[in-house]
């Protein structure tokens, strides 16, 4: 991995397994570039890849950019095999991972049989291919800094194309390798019994108040209850 640049965009805490993945890759010589602070996924991708191109020019020995999401569990052997395949083909290559609905995070590209449009959880991109895409991408300025529009999301031909599939298209399609990686997702969040009991009591008090005759003394106002934290 000593010729690989690992690029990650994140706007949250990186998963524990992903941290282990990054450490293992770094131990084998991979360089890490982390982009943080933007909730706009498409912009985050563009900024991260723009920085990646700058880093490639500073480090000409790095010939593969490995895009990883912050919720992936990737064995080092898989990362190495993916990078090697991208070098061999001169094309972007993706590992296989599942979505929450147990489907593969990829779709066959009808316009280019044999190639795929993929999620960007674990994709290896050859240096020359990424730099070539940078050259033909429109540039934009934000807060005094310039970036390249590697991807975006929006309507096309009556459908909607997300930023991951758009980047796959802009890269000329992706080779989907039979290499499995883990996709870490949290379980469902449930309110606790105490919260439900408090809500039930509040509803009961409200029902009594609604049936009181006019002029009856009102109950003191209830303090608002904290239902709990919501996370996506």
List keywords for this structure.
14 strands; 2 domains
What does this structure look like?
There is one protein chain. The protein has helices spanning 16-27, 41-58, 76-89, 127-136, 163-170, 193-211; strands spanning 4-10, 31-36, 64-68, 72-73, 93-96, 106-108, 116-118, 122-126, 139-142, 145-148, 154-156, 159-161, 175-180, 182-183. Strand 6 and strand 7 (116-118) form a beta hairpin. The protein has two domains: 4-183, Spore Coat Polysaccharide Biosynthesis Protein SpsA, Chain A; 189-232, no CATH class. The model is unreliable at 216-232 (pLDDT under 50). It contains six helices and 14 strands. The protein is α/β, with parallel strands linked by helices and 232 residues long. The strands form five sheets. A six-stranded mixed sheet has the order 2-1-3-8-5-13, with helices on both faces. The protein has a two-stranded antiparallel sheet with strand order 4-14. Strands 6-7 form a two-stranded antiparallel sheet.
